[in-house]
Amino acid sequence: MATDMVTNSRAEVLRRVRAARGGTSDGVAVRAGWDGIAREYRRKGTREREGLLALLEDRLRDYDARVVRAAGEGVGQSVAKRLVERGVRRMVVPVGLPVEWMPVGWLPASAGEVEFVVDEGLSSEELDDVDGVMTGATLAIAETGTFVLQNVAGQGRRAATLVPDYHLCVVRAEDVVETVPEAMGRLQETAGLATTFVSGPSATADIEMTRIKGVHGPRSLDVILIV
Amino acid sequence: MSGVGLDPKTAPTFPMAAKAMLGDTQLRKNVRHATDVIQEKRARVVGEMPDWQELREAGRQIRRHTMEYLDFYLEEFEANCTRAGGVVHWARDAEEARGIVVGLVKASGSDQVIKIKSMTTEEIQLNSALEAAGIHPYETDLAELIIQLGEDRPSHIVVPALHKNRQQIREIFQREMKLPELGERPQDLADAARMFLREKFLRVKTAVSGANFLIAETGGVCVVESEGNGRMCLTLPETLITIAGIDKVLPRFQDLEVMLQLLPRSATGERMNPYNSIWTGVDAASSGDGLRDGPRVFHVVLTDNARTEILADEEGRQTLNCIRCGACQNACPVYRQTGGHAYGSVYAGPIGAILTPQLQEMHHAQSLPYASSLCGACYEVCPVKINIPEVLIHLRNKVVKQNTAGVAGLFDVEAGAMKAMAMIFRSERRFRAAQRLGRVAERPLVRRDGQGEGWIGWLPGLLGGWTQARDLEEMPKETFRDWWERRGRDGN
């Protein structure tokens, strides 16, 4: 009986939709209609590489993120410096994070003062117990100050970048695009993966419209831009 | 625990409720401040976009196209979501939607749920249904938490507690969280909410969310938020139940490139809000590091609840294009004076004035299409170009038709008054007599303002409807006709 009701509701809602629109939609017409949508907005950005990176940095800082640049081999050093500055003792990292981004002498168990924990399925409580998380990113959008995380190697599970108080994200300059349409174009192929757009640390403006950082997600965010 | 929901079936009419709200100077100050801040931010980030009008036009066309082929896209979403491991349910009305969600929560084995802010769950009054079934819902959005703990009701689509200031919020938190020492800075209040909810996020195994968009092409769902409470609910529990109106469908993943530019800038005046989550079914752990990411059980409840009624009305249909950014509320001179509660519905402001009566199939909330000055500010800021003034006028016509149809029409006072007016206007003698009568009758009601102008602020009986929302100017001492005749007599 319950199944009957479920089936009936589905049929009834679709019947109502079709009655309201005068019949069943035809797939060919749907496709033609979608293709006919006017998209006169900007798709591609116009900035040169340097202008693009400067825009991303500016927009990220506007969101209270700290941004630094690092060249190839300097990434690990830059990471170590950030962690010391932030007073972080225990960092979680996803499986597949490039080893060359890690501080010199890094071993899965520890790197001098900072202990690194690889997320091999940590519980929420265990994630709540570490100070920070370090990940890469699929891409970044300069115009909005956004980076995009997906469930792939080096970026990890969504919970890992959410529960700890601090997030350090490493972005490659070649993965920076200027506009949102450029980003969606690149994401199209992996659209089925769990995907998170991050723009600055967690924030709220619910109290008298005052922007407050770090409500439930990470309170602080650092970005290292590999150039 | 939560207050009684805003129910258009039992709410007082807008003019009555608005009158009470206008007397609350603290509320008006809070609303004015909040809407000023958002409007200023919105104008700045919209001004940065050289292609804003082209984006609006694309947004309008995407939404119109979706409504045109809604049956196709709903079925496509269902097929793709199911393929990805989600379970899709259909609900004809609010009662059925509540029943499905309550049943799913019970099946999850939990007697508590964590909730992401969702206007659809407010619309169907889900919280009281959960409580009646012995399930405790925890609102996790800061504003919704303030509302829930304060036994209050939301007054804005995006910032539901904008009618409360920090002192009022502090009092609620002190009392409900038992924190007598709580500070007064916004940061202190946010920290208290973080402490209060962190334990729930880690412990409660079932979550309920709304949806900003359902993506037909992939079967994916998109939720846009700022605090990270959304991500907590979408990521940590074992069971996730997402409830969405059937109007939330978006044809293709690529269409997000338009919506993700229009929505955050219009809603909170940000280039992008801190977090957008897009997920598809349940993660099969087939990619990445091989670890399971997110809930193991995922349900979507597609809810009609009179949306197909709106779809069937050619002129009202564009109401369904709304992406719930709240820009029209911030821009509306009426909303800015009364706040949201006067609308007697979870959808307040201009969009509420057209959405609510239609969701009630025009049987309730009939005063809302009149709760507007038709100034057009809402149309101008709408990111998908909903012509709200046009729909308001269309609905006013519907209200009049409904009220004058059948037996009720025979006794309709307004129609009777109009007939009497027509009779007076047809005869010069009757018109002059009416003018004379008016001047005599108004005398005891006229009050002088500072400039010596006469104004009437209250008319008796049936005429009182006119002066409920405006003052009436005193009739001139001498009419044009009298002046013209006197001029002829005096030979000037």
Automatic annotation (TrEMBL), chain A:
Pfam families: LUD_dom
SUPFAM superfamilies in the record: NagB/RpiA/CoA transferase-like (SSF100950)
Domain LUD: 123-226
Name this protein carries in UniProt: L-lactate dehydrogenase complex protein LldG
Organism: Tunturiibacter empetritectus
From TrEMBL, chain B:
PANTHER family: LACTATE UTILIZATION PROTEIN B (PTHR47153:SF2)
Taxonomic source organism: Tunturiibacter empetritectus
UniProt keyword annotation of Transmembrane helix present: no
Residues covered by the 4Fe-4S ferredoxin-type domain: 308-334
InterPro entries (UniProt xref): 4Fe4S_Fe-S-bd (IPR017896), 4Fe4S_Fe_S_CS (IPR017900), FTHF_cligase-like_sf (IPR024185), Helical_ferredxn (IPR009051), LUD_dom (IPR003741), LutB/LldF (IPR004452), LutB_C (IPR024569), NagB/RpiA_transferase-like (IPR037171)
NCBIfam families in alphabetical order: LutB/LldF family L-lactate oxidation iron-sulfur protein
Keyword rRNA-binding belongs to the record: no
Biological process, per Gene Ontology: lactate metabolic process
Molecular function terms, GO-annotated: 4 iron, 4 sulfur cluster binding; metal ion binding
Keywords, ordered alphabetically: 4Fe-4S, Electron transport, Iron, Iron-sulfur, Metal-binding, Repeat, Transport
Protein's recorded name: L-lactate dehydrogenase complex protein LldF
